Structure formats: structure tokens, C-alpha cells
Amino acid sequence: MDQLDRSYRTDMLMAEALPGDIIRVKCNIPYSMDAGLIPGQFVFISLSPSSWAAMICTHPFSICRIDGNDTLKEEEEDEAIADKSTNETLIKTMDSQFFTFYIKATGNRTRPLYDIAQSRTKIIEARISKPLGRPYVTNSGAEFGDFESVILVAEGMGITPWLSVLQYIEQKQHAIKIKSASLIWSIHSIDTFYAFEQEFGRFSDSMQLDLNIKIYITGLSDPEENYSIPDNLAYIDFTTSCRPNYHDLFQELNRQEYTTVVGVCAHESTIVKLNNLCLYNSWAIRKERFEL
């Protein structure tokens, strides 16, 4: 039944065009979240106010963040000062919680959303489902916070489910077992990183545990692009023109005294490779495939 429950109308869907043809979407939550959010969950989004369209023209998107009204009021009021044309409804509807999504404009459904974001249209009608998926790490119900070391692996937009895990670690770091968090992210161009730079800066500033971020830029072919790779971010290790060697990286990140879990959202060949490495190291693994 959860899969069919997609007809919750959201009256505000704010879209911001980012580098790499990526859109950041902030959407008010049209239902109660008393049960909380499990890191790694997703929703179905229909970019139409029609309940019929919501049944057939939907797509799953990872929930990257959930924020309260205080955080978003401050951000959007700053934007409103800079943009006098901001709809008054924007401020009035901020007395709630918000989901944040990052969406890649790649097809007929998402490309128009990017065009809308570029036009700075603030209010868009849409429909979303309740959070879906059972992103537990083990069959017994263990979560990421039950392990001492967390290694997150992503390729391209596969970073999106792990943003909510990083937010969970950020907010619960003094109450959970996690002592070390690592992210290995492969992207084709540096533009994709800049779309998420704000998120990484937030995590770096607020996390007091051991945070290790490695970004591999696999498609760098123009030497001039080297100048666009930031050299002032001490908390991120950039590697260009190559792909990660997961065997060597896992040996480097292996802390024998810690219980370890790996989260992976990537191409199937990468998932198979990492699953074998986790079996070898006796680590738990969460493979994100948007399963209900």
C-alpha cells in the first residue's frame, strides 16, 4: 500500500539550478513525520498537481535532508531580500519541516524542472509519497549508527542517499557508536562537486568525529579544468583522471578494532565488487537499489 500512496500534494516546491545540470529542490512535507526518517529512505515525486499523474508519472528520489522551519526560514529570507519578486507565499508556508532533494536534469521530465529553476520561479505544485524503503543494514534491523566505522561509496548522483546518512551522523554523533565516517565518491566532472559543495562544508564544520572524504574525478580530460579543482578544502582529497582502487582504499580504511558497515549506491559492477570485498573483510553492506 505504501507504494501506491503517492497523492500527497505539496504546495511549495522550490527549485534552484546548480552546476552540472543539477537541481536542488526544497519541498514542504505535507504529512506528519512523528515516526521520523530512516537515513537512506526515498519518496516518489510527481511534478504535477494531478493525483492521476501521481499514480503513473512518478520517479523515486532520495531524501537528502530533512530540516525544520528555522533553518530554511533563514536561507529563504536571505534570498527574498536579494530577490524582491519572491512570492509572499514563500515566507508564509515555512512554518513546517522540509525535504531537500538533488535531481539530475537528464530527461523529458526533469529537464523542464531545470528550466523552471533557471527562471527563478519559486512556487511549483507537485505530489510526493511518504518515505519509502527499508534501509536497514542487516536483517536483524541494525542501522548505520550501530557500527563504529561507516564507509559510504557513491558514483555520480548515487551520493544522494548518503547525504541523509551524513546528516544523521552529524545530528546524532554524540549518541551513536560511529567514530569514523568515510566517503568515496566518483564523479565525471568537477561541476558535480560544486552542486554539493554547500553540503560538504556543513558536514565538515559540524562533525567532531573522524571524517574522511575522497573524490575521484574520472572524466577530466582538459588540463585547464585542473584550475577549477579547489585547493583550499583540507577535509577533501581530490584525485583526477582515475577511478578508485577499492581494494587498496578498503585496506587503508580498515580499522581492525571497529565494527564496519559499507553503504554503496553505484553501478551494478561496482556493487558486486564491493560486496565481495565486504564478504572478505566480514563487513556489513547496504546496497541502495531503491527497494521497497
Task: Throw out a few tags for this protein.
292 residues, 6-stranded parallel sheet, 4-stranded antiparallel sheet, 14 strands, 26% strand, globular
What does this structure look like?
This protein is of the alpha/beta class. The protein is built from eight helices and 14 strands. It has a six-stranded parallel beta sheet with strand order 12-11-10-9-13-14, with helices on both faces. Strands 1-8-4-5 form a four-stranded antiparallel beta sheet. Strands 2-3-7-6 form a four-stranded antiparallel beta sheet. Strand 2 and strand 3 (22-28) form a beta hairpin. The N and C termini lie close together (11 Å).
Uncertain segments are 76-94
Distance between the termini: 11 Å
Number of helices: 8
What is the strand content? 25-35%
Mean pLDDT: 82
Derived from helix and strand composition plus strand pairing, the structural class reads alpha/beta
Assign a percent range to the helix content: 25-40%
Find the count of extended strands (DSSP E, 2+ residues): 14
Order of strands side by side in the largest beta sheet?
A: 12-11-10-9-13-14
GO molecular function, one term: ferric-chelate reductase activity
Family: Belongs to the ferric reductase (FRE) family.
Keywords: Oxidoreductase, Transport
Protein name: FAD-binding FR-type domain-containing protein
